[in-house]
Amino acid sequence: MTLVAGVDSSTQSVKVVIRDAESGALIREGRASHPDGTEVDPQKWWTGLNSAIAEAGGLDDVAAISVGGQQHGMVALDQSGEVIRPALLWNDTRSAQTATDLNAEIGGDQAMADATGSVLVASFTASKVRWLADVEPENAAKVAAVCLPHDWLSWKLQGAKGFEQLFTDRSDASGTGYFDPTTSTYRRDIFARAIKSDREIYLPRIVASTEFGGETLTGVKIGAGAGDNAGAAFGVQAVAGDVIVSLGTSGTAFSVSTTPTHDGSGEVAGFADVTGNFLPLVCTLNAARILDAAARILGVDFDRLSDLALSAPAGANGLTLLPYFEGERTPNRPTATGVFGGMNLTNSNPENIARAMIEGMLSGLADAVESLSNLGVSINRIFLVGGAAKNPAVGQIASALFGREVVVPPAGEYVADGAARQAAWALNGALPQWDLGKVHHVQSRPTPHVLEKYRALRDATVNW
């Protein structure tokens, strides 16, 4: 039996799965927590990864490993390879204005979308690089290399001896804001504008998913890796026309597409996928944590939260939540806050509050799916994945809001699984087809009136 390992280094934790390269059977796994916050010392990721690998039984019998990771995070390195400052993560919104500035400098939103597939918002690495140049010029002057979280971990696995060992893949690179996913090349002109310097700064080389970028000090081959969403799509074995709605810390709706997108409105980011296709994606900042907040507000566990939500009618008797608890990325409202609308003495009870909070979280993602469709993205199936997808109320309400059947695969670590599958692909030279297990199909009666009220509240609070 040949074993491969897959890593998901996410905002909140790191997960490691070790699987049979041929069948995909799970052999063992491990995990560790990451610190909270929107900026983190990358060494915490490295400590967590080593802990998770140890819990998974180590890599002594593993032939290859691949790392999936949170997109966009900026890891700035000096000439000696030391981290200059804590990494700014995707959910750090301090670079909102610098994103606007860069878009304007390139010629406007549509020009940026034409160049990179996406209009920059605060999340993108380029926006954070410009923030560094504007706010911490002394640190910007020290920058010798910029990489992403999964790039840095793959580098550390090799011993971090030189920048030539830094590599990434096109899926994660496509979230930097200085990469063209259509040509799979960096836009160094945009990077130079971001850093406000023409000096030579190392950017990780691009490695194909069918290749290895290096190996660990003990000889384990290291695959190209992936951005977390691309890794999840690969993990559920999505094909062109499949949409994946992922409910993690952030909420994302993305589709495997054979053609690139260039959305000047900024709603849809034009990323790349693992297989050589494209991954048009809409991201919201508020997903699973809305369920956490609902459970905390109501003083219940997630099972009880589901029961409460399903005992209330669709539309929660007029109660609507705009779930911008951490600001928002789509629509681009980085300073927004959450808003309850339509609250009265009749609907201010646990059942309606639970329903409204789940509906509010999912309504933003229903908007996301509609944005993909409006760009001409084919939608054949909708997969619902992520920690919050396990909640029974979420599947039922999602199907009602999306107005179509949703497919819920078994709970799993699909980013890590996608990374492991990629390692197996590079190792064996053939794309593996693994058994996902029993999937559930959920079909609910459509509830367009819920979306209408949600959108009315969204539009009425544009300046909040």
Count of strand segments: 24
Structural Rg:
21 Å
What distance lies between the first and last C-alpha atoms, to the nearest angstrom? Answer: 57 Å
* Helix residue percentage: 25-40%
Provide an overview of this structure:
The protein has 464 residues and is α+β, with helices and mostly antiparallel strands. Helices cover 35% and strands 21% of the residues. The protein has 15 helices and 24 strands. Strands 1, 2, 3, 5, 13, 14 and 15 form a seven-stranded mixed beta sheet that branches. The radius of gyration is 21 Å and the shape is globular. The model has no long low-confidence stretch (mean pLDDT 95).
Give the key terms.
alpha+beta; globular; 464 residues; seven-stranded mixed β-sheet; five-stranded mixed β-sheet; 35% helix
